[in-house]
Design brief:
CATH topology of the largest domain: Beta-Lactamase
CATH superfamily of the largest domain: CHASE domain
Number of domains: 2
Distance between the termini: 84 Å
Number of strands: 23
Number of helices: 14
Structural class: alpha+beta
Radius of gyration: 32 Å
CATH architecture of the largest domain: 2-Layer Sandwich
């Protein structure tokens, strides 16, 4: 009996052992995969946080550089006035300094220096730097251009190191940024770029001082002849880009920015993940790794302990199934909540970014006019006032788009139907957008709201001016009871995958390193307004031209179409009589 029982127990023990081993093995594999997924997911989230902070820092620098470039173009200031303006807009808060670099051809060096001597004592020579910090000659027969610092504002982070130096605006004047072969190439590329640009990272060693991850951000400055005369540039340090990162995250995250294709130096490449950061004029690499304490917290309990407990919990499969279903329901709810939060954050970030750029220029220029009005000539004052009006008009257009798009206010927008001359509205839209276009064909008369038609055309012309090719046409035609206006440009086509979402709210039809991100409401509002007026707005590319086609009801065929319910309009509407015309009121 005992022998028989032993014989029966042996296969049972083997079977149970196999089951336990299988469960333990499966759980071990699952735990290892979970641990890896947890660490990878954590790195993805931290990379998004770091990338957001870096984006905000770079965007802030370029906003300040844009304001400084406009100030230089309009007023031709001296170095002290330049430094005072940078301080006024708090432009060098996180930078080593912001300066204006002049482009001087080699054959013009002597004339340039003579002019500088006559206009002021600040800049006496163009020079480079030796490793010990002493000056060296930069005159090289192989060089065609030099890039001396003509004006300079010292950053706030540097000032405590200067021991109260009283002539900060003279610091570095005459230093040729192109004395370093790497930066020489980057400065030349930035001068040729149509917009914001970033240099490569380099390490600087001068007089025993070692600075790692030094780079500069720049904006070109045009002269009176429309040519690029120089650059407004901010010298930056890579470690300072995350100065606004939460201290708790700094204890958990190791990070490093470096050139694309390189390797991190501060953290172990084998324990980090590398992400690509698309920046204006450059692609950076971002390495992210958890600190030892954070990695220990992420891994949690040892895998063997988890596997042992899992073997005991195998008998509770039914309960586990119920918990799994409940967890999925909860996960779905959390994902929906997260989507709402992400949409809100994206909206707020886009709006604040879009508003801050013109506000920075308006604030800086307005303060200059208030405090130093007598220092400007009548021509300079007129130019600055024109700039204020243009930036104020841009702010008004952004606010108008936001008011129309807001769900709580959309019910208050009224469509005022009347005979609308598309040609007249196109000319007004061109003037409002501050651009030009060739008008072709015979403009038709639409039964629509002239103000809304002008808003649609202004959005399309602004997009063509910002993102399209150098040639822009407005083509008019008529087709089966409709009048048509096509805004066409010879720029590159919009990618197929972007065309599916570009008419949705807060989506952009264009991705460009040279243009900052927009709110993404123009095309969304334009299509909805077109549909609310009984028309349509669509996009096509014929191989050479990008074409946004706006069709609206022709006057003689419009009234019956307007009175009928909207076809596909996202915004519901009802017809309201107003005097001798009629209107459509949007319903919530």
């Amino acid at each position: 009996m005992t022998s028989s029982s032993a014989r029966r127990r042996k296969p049972l023990a083997i079977g149970l052992s196999v089951i336990v081993c299988v469960v333990v093995a499966l759980v071990s594999i699952g735990e290892f995969s979970r641990e890896r997924a947890t660490v990878d997911g954590w790195m993805d989230r931290q990379a998004q946080v770091v990338e957001g902070v870096v984006d905000d820092a770079i965007d802030g620098v370029f906003r300040n550089l844009t304001a400084a470039a406009a100030f230089v173009e309009q007023t031709s200031p001296k170095s002290p006035e330049f430094a005072e303006f940078i301080d006024r807009i708090d432009g060098a808060a996180n930078a080593v300094g912001i300066g204006y670099l002049t482009i001087v051809r080699s054959k013009e060096v002597e004339v340039y220096l003579e002019h500088q001597h006559e206009s002021g004592p600040e800049l006496h020579e163009i020079f480079g730097l030796n490793e010990d910090g002493s000056r060296k000659s930069i005159y090289d027969g192989n060089r065609t251009e030099f890039y001396p610092v003509e004006m300079f504002a010292v950053g706030k982070i540097v000032r405590p190191l200067l021991n109260g130096e009283s002539t900060l605006e003279q610091l570095g004047l005459g230093l040729d940024i192109g004395y370093d072969p790497i930066w020489r190439e980057d400065v030349a590329a930035a001068a040729a770029a149509p917009g914001p640009a970033l240099s490569r990272f380099i390490d600087i060693k001068l007089a025993g001082l070692a600075l790692d991850g030094v780079f500069f951000a720049s904006i070109p400055v045009e002269g009176a002849d429309g040519e690029i005369d120089g650059l407004v540039a901010a010298m930056m340090l890579e470690p300072l880009l995350l100065g606004d990162l939460d201290n708790r995250l700094l204890d958990e995250v190791q990070w490093e920015l470096f050139a694309e294709g390189g390797l991190p130096e501060r953290i172990d490449p084998s324990s980090s993940r590398v992400f690509a950061l698309e920046m204006p004029g450059a692609t950076w690499s971002l390495a992210i790794a958890p600190t030892d304490d954070a990695l220990s917290d992420l891994r949690g309990q040892p895998w063997w302990l988890v596997a042992t407990v899992a073997g005991v919990l195998a008998a509770l499969a039914a309960l586990s199934l119920w918990l799994l279903v409940d967890r999925r329901v909860e996960h779905s709810r959390l994902m929906r909540f997260k989507q709402v939060v992400d949409d809100k954050d994206r909206f707020l970030a886009s709006v604040s970014h879009e508003l801050r750029t013109p506000l920075t220029v308006v604030s800086g220029v307005a303060n200059e006019l208030r405090d130093r009005r007598k220092a400007f000539t009548e021509e300079e004052e007129s130019s600055l006032l024109t700039m204020l009006v243009d930036q104020s008009d841009e702010l008004a257009a952004i606010v108008e788009d936001l008011l129309i798009a807001a769900r709580s206010d959309i019910g208050k927008v009224v469509i005022q139907y009347q005979q609308t001359d598309l040609g007249a509205e196109a000319r007004r839209a061109l003037e409002a957008a501050g651009t030009t276009a060739t008008m072709r064909g015979e403009p038709g008369i639409a039964w629509a709201d002239g103000q809304r038609v002008g808003q649609i055309l202004r959005n399309l012309l602004t997009n063509a001016h910002r993102y399209g090719g150098p040639k822009v046409h407005i083509e008019f035609s008529a087709n089966a009871g409709s009048v048509v206006a096509v805004v066409a440009d010879n720029g590159p086509p919009i990618p197929e995958k972007t065309r599916d979402v570009m008419f949705e709210a807060y989506e952009s039809a264009h991705k460009s390193d040279q243009v900052v991100r927009s709110v993404g409401l123009g095309l969304y509002i334009s299509r909805n307004l077109a549909r609310a007026m009984g028309g349509e707005l669509d996009y096509a590319h014929d191989g050479a031209w990008s074409r946004f086609r706006l069709s609206l009801p022709e006057v003689n065929a419009a009234r019956e179409r307007v009175m009928a319910p909207p076809r596909r309009a996202v915004l519901q509407a009802e017809v309201v009589p107003i005097g001798q015309t009629s209107a459509v009121r949007f319903l919530e």
